């Protein structure tokens, strides 16, 4: 009887694993690695990005932020540094909204501007919100969060640069 019970559990386990693998393979979701190259537009350049399912919002390395009025709307002028070449890029985009963000386990809130950008990762073409933060001390200038990934991608943290 014990052997029958073990066999029964093994068969159930195999079926569950087989179903899971089948479901992932036939999923309309794109598998991305923990690190990927992403095309941001504007500025129309490639950047190394960290894929972070722990981050609610995506984030872009931006510095020298300057708020200005453009036809009655609030806009931002800011620099972004490329990690693939030495040229900084100056962008001007409308402010979508402003949020208060708590960085890591720091108690104070930081004000962050949000802009909309188009991004491409492999076959994924996405448009979404990016917070602007000085990430020059970070290894990756772009952080892709759940706001862009949800419903479109599965993250395999054991892989990097699946889409080159």
* Rg, alpha carbons: 21 Å
Oligomer: single chain
Low-confidence stretches: 16-24
CATH topology: Cathepsin D, subunit A, domain 1
* CATH-defined architecture: Beta Barrel
> Which whole number gives the mean pLDDT?
85
Number of strands: 12
SSE order: HEEEEEEEEEEEHE
- The overall number of domains is 1
Strand fraction: over 45%
Q: Main beta sheet, described? A: 6 strands, mixed, barrel
CATH homologous superfamily descriptor: Acid Proteases
- Report strand order across the widest sheet: 2-3-11-4-10-9
Describe this structure in words.
The chain is α+β, with helices and mostly antiparallel strands and 164 residues long. The protein has a single domain (30-156), classed as Cathepsin D, subunit A, domain 1 (Beta Barrel). The protein is built from two helices and twelve strands. It has helices at 2-25, 146-149, and strands at 30-33, 35-41, 45-51, 58-61, 63-70, 73-81, 88-94, 97-102, 109-121, 124-133, 142-144, 153-156. It has a six-stranded mixed beta barrel. The chain has a three-stranded antiparallel β-sheet with strand order 5-6-7, with no helix packed on it. A hairpin with a 6-residue loop joins strand 8 and strand 9 (109-121). The longest helix is centred in the first third of the chain and has 24 residues, at 2-25. The chain is globular, with a radius of gyration of 21 Å. The termini are far apart. The relative contact order is 0.26. The model is unreliable at 16-24 (pLDDT under 50).
Outline the fold blueprint.
Blueprint: H1 2-25, E1 30-33, E2 35-41, E3 45-51, E4 58-61, E5 63-70, E6 73-81, E7 88-94, E8 97-102, E9 109-121, E10 124-133, E11 142-144, H2 146-149, E12 153-156
Parallel strand pairs: 1-12, 3-11, 4-10
Antiparallel strand pairs: 2-3, 2-9, 4-11, 5-6, 6-7, 8-9, 9-10
């Amino acid at each position: 009887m014990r052997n029958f019970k073990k066999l029964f559990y093994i068969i159930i386990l195999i079926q569950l694993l087989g179903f899971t693998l089948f479901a992932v393979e036939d999923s309309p979701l794109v598998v991305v690695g923990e690190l990927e190259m992403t095309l941001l537009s504007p500025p129309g350049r490639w950047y190394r990005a960290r894929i972070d399912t722990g981050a609610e919002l995506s984030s872009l390395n931006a510095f020298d932020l300057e708020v200005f009025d453009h036809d009655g709307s609030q806009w931002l002028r800011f620099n972004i540094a490329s990690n693939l070449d030495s040229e900084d890029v100056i962008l001007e985009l409308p402010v979508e909204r402003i949020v208060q963000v708590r960085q890591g386990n720091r108690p104070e809130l930081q004000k962050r501007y949000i802009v909309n950008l188009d991004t491409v990762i492999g076959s994924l073409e996405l448009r979404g919100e990016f917070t602007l933060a000085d990430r020059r001390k970070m290894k990756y200038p772009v952080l892709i969060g759940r706001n862009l990934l949800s419903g479109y991608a599965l993250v395999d943290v054991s892989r990097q640069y699946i889409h080159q």
